[in-house]
Amino acid sequence: MFKASRPAVYFASSVSLVALVSFVRPSEARGQTTDVVGVRAQGMGGAFTAVADDATATWWNPAGLAGGAYFNALLEDGIHREPGSDRNAAGAPQAAWRSGTRGIAVAFPALGLSYYRLRVSEIQPQTSTGTTAAVRQDGGAVPVRLRSMVLDQLGATVGQSLGEHLVVGSTFKLVTAGAATDVQVAGTGSLDEADRLEASGETHVGLDVGAMATFGHARLGLMIRNVKQPEFGAGVDAFTLSRHARAGVALSSGRRGVIGSATIAVDADLTKTATALGDERRVGAGAEAWTGKQSLGVRAGVSANTIGSRRPSFSGGLSAAVRKGMYVDGEATGGSDEGRRGWGVALRVTF
Q: Which residues make Cβ contacts (< 8 Å) with residue 285, sequence separation at least 6?
């Protein structure tokens, strides 16, 4: 475990504990899915809340920094969407979304700094009354609704050990976000067109909190994102970054909160999220294993929706050392969830 400067960590600890107690049963989420960040996390099927030992802990669980290396930095890029998923077999548009992520993060056991950029694009066919529906081939006259949301997040993460087994942490963040919508005829409307929409952003202060408990080889994690639920935009472009709670458990060969050479993990959303494909409340399971000299790591995972259509996804990942302490990470995801099919790559330095 770690100990940081007293004023900062005591303030963060107080805020985190109050938030965790107050929002353990958060309100229904009304935003986009938030588990598309992190190449290692995606390779493990999103089962990362109780793992979170690299710099992406600034996103996944700020309390996870305590179990990480003395220094960790990474650059990552990824996109998740099956090409052509916005068209059905007949060539007509159908409900679909995709996400693109980029990030840079630096982490020490007591402090993390991060920047993430997330773009989520949607397409929704509409009837004449404005409700979504399947679209028939009719010469491209039926309208489709396009929407694009862009989020830039700059965060600072701190944490505090509370005894031998518990760590709490907070990510204080500046979030600049905006959304843009448009309606086009079916013949031209696509996710590519949604990506081209220009969204004007506004900036708000945000807060994520997390906790990590360690008992021998077991770790229990809890993450609550967007505690303050900032609101952006106005009119049809208005949206809220709704509170999102997620819990996880991990078993690892490492001791005292440090992830070892073999890890299995399970995650579950405690809130539901509204997406273009319907409400989601996801569960995921994954595993990670490293060679004895930490030169090669492999991981695999599966996740599924527990509301309505299951839409299972299957993922795999690989980490290879290019030199001591420097890794190239990669992941690929497939399955029946069109919005999660894709890939991610990262360059990670750790020692």
A: 45, 47, 264, 265, 266, 267, 301, 302, 303
